[in-house]
Amino acid sequence: MPGFGGTQNLHPLVGLQAAMDMMLTGKDIRPDKAKKMGLVDLVVSSHSLEKVAIESARGLADGTIPRSKGIAKKKTLMQRFIEDTSLGRYFMWKTVKEMVDKNTNGHYPAPYAIIDSVKYGLEHPQGDAKFKYEREAFAKLAATRESESLIRIFHGMTQLKKNKYSDSSPVSYKPIQTIAVMGSGLMGAGIAQVSAEKGYTVLLKDRDDAAIERGRNYIYQNWDKSLSKKKLTKYKYNVNSSNIVSLTDQNESWRKHFSNADMVIEAVFEEIGLKRRIVQLCEENTPEHCVFCTNTSAIPISSIAEGARRPESIIGMHYFR
Description:
Blueprint: H1 6-9, H2 11-14, H3 16-25, H4 31-36, H5 49-62, H6 77-84, H7 86-104, H8 109-123, H9 129-142, H10 145-161, E1 178-182, H11 186-197, E2 201-206, H12 209-228, H13 234-242, E3 244-248, H14 254-258, E4 263-266, H15 272-285, E5 291-294, H16 301-304, E6 314-316
Parallel strand pairs: 1-2, 1-4, 2-3, 4-5, 5-6
């Protein structure tokens, strides 16, 4: 549940429907949408963020930039009916409660407290009573068993995400910069896409140009879709694209590229002979520190590592999004 007046100050800016959706679901709001809906005053490129933030702080301090008055965007006729009339609000609250009931099965008290706090504020718009109501509801929720359990889950998940081989660890390791992906099918292309998005140089290799093209088409279709939905900027699109290097068996230059690989991920079909040949090929053309990752679902890793020169560097890996 939002504290510090969140249940009271959000909906005057973005409207009741948008505010309830944000508070009850925790959905991310894209920068362009946040600006359009009145949630933020200014959106800038990440590369200009520090410069603009400093300029804005100075402008607010010396008065050259007016402070935001928190004026909400003009509502449409339908929004006014739903949010500003008793009949419209009746159906809106009915829909909201049905959604909460469906998603929580009544086991989470916070969504209901959010609804009650917003309703109370609408019924008591003047004075500080609405903020007092929210504070008391927030404190009450903080003392529930549900809150204690969710906090415990959060800490557990955070602990699992921590890497014990961090920079402060005495264990030495070589950072991964270049990843080679063997196989550009659905799985290989997906691994290449995710890795490129994370900033790695990706060597995507397959047997011929036709196979590579199918994999690249899959990747670029996903990026084109994200670009059209404004989930991806053109700049990031170009950066992602530049991170992928396409290679085939038909061009011997792949060996030179693989000599710089820090990790190889094979995503070929489940045939142990093929996987062992790929291990041998990679060991012949990659540096000693390179880790070989197999994406197998059924074949034991130890079986794939039989006969390898560096069996201790062969691991199993699966990607999840």
